[in-house]
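Lab notebook page, bench 4
Experiment: in silico fold of construct C2
Operator: M.H.
Input chain length: 239 residues
Purpose: comparison with the prior construct
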Amino acid sequence: MVRSGGQSPWVLLDLDGTVLDYDRAEREAVLGTLAAASLPADGDMVARYRQVNARHWSALERGATTAARLRTERWAELIVEAVPEREGDVDLAALASAYVAHLAAGAYLLPDAAEAVAELAGTHRIAYITNGLADVQRPRLAASPLADLGEVLIISDEVGAAKPAAAIFQAALRAMGEPDPRTVTMVGDSLSADIAGGRAAGLPTVWVAPEEQPDPTDPALRPEHRITTIGELPGLLRG
């Protein structure tokens, strides 16, 4: 990560689904983990895992579970739902560790992400904020060209709070040197985590979402701006 003493405004970027291709990394990690454990490794299992994992991350965002529990409990639930005959026959800790290792190697970028963040770095200071596990997110970012463009990386696993909680945004602002929140633009693909959390922290927000996704009706989830890809962000922030 770079360090800068400049007074440029900040962009606070979510990682997965905003600049990093989490879907691809997750799919490859799930298939590799299941195959190595002699479990069914196909598209149906990936879909089942994603449903289970989404429930556990939603619980984490609500403060109803912990990152340590999430690591193994999502796999325990998947085994019970998809291959109950293997319940008690699978080393859940080993499965969880193998998955983290696979996922940490998936440093895939979304289209236009490298170019967009590089362009932004010429006019803004860059920070990253992510709901994730430190031993997954740090190596993924470090292996990408985005690492050298950012000054700050905030990970929910290290902070002990996940977006949209105020604590993780407070940690980000402290790491940035306590800038005026109005000069920090939060950019992300999740209404519930990125936009709601950013708005509550007093940050201008930009939602990255495909055109077919409807606008939110809840005022707490309504971003100041909306773009369809990260490639549109430099032009938006140039005004």
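Observations: The mean pLDDT is 95. The domain at 23-104 is CATH 1.10.150 (DNA polymerase; domain 1).
Next step: discuss at group meeting.
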